[in-house]
Amino acid sequence: MILPIVAYGDPVLRKKATDISQDYKALDALIENMYETMYNAHGVGLAAPQIGLPIRLFIIDCEPFSNDDELSEDEQKSLAELKQTFINANILEETGDEWAFNEGCLSIPDVREDVFRKEKITISFYDENFTHQTKTYDGLAARVIQHEYDHIEGVLFTDKLSPLKRRLIKSKLTNISKGKIEVDYRMKFPNLNKKR
What we know:
This protein is of the alpha+beta class. 26% of the residues lie in helices and 33% in strands. The protein has helices at 27-40, 73-80, 139-152, 163-177, and strands spanning 5-6, 45-47, 57-61, 83-105, 108-126, 132-138, 187-189, 194-195.
């Protein structure tokens, strides 16, 4: 089932999400719906707060990045195969140099800006079977995970921009929160209390 994606301005996007247990109601269906919602919106990641749930759950599928000719064959292959569910995740370490990449967000459509992030992370999480894992990711994979992880911490990529950049996009953000934007996927706008 395709769910509406919560737009910028909704308080749920600013909440620090809470852990869930293995018996969280209809967890399998929720994860399946999140993947369907993400694919419908042509995203590479989606966090539960983006569908209105303040819980520590996010998903990624980096396959769309695997066609980047600037990446090595090994990098392309690893991105093509990287589809992962993260439950109760905690980033244990972020290392390496910070590097810029042009990011966007399904909750903030039509806004893209360069964001600086560390190049390598180690993260602890449970997968969809509630098997505990600790893994290290780098490059684009680390970046996608960091972006989605920020969502469960109540942080948006726009928070990482300079004050000047934030001022320059302020009117765009206001329009998004008021539903004054055209998107080709379902969204829920906070100032309208309705779905479009």
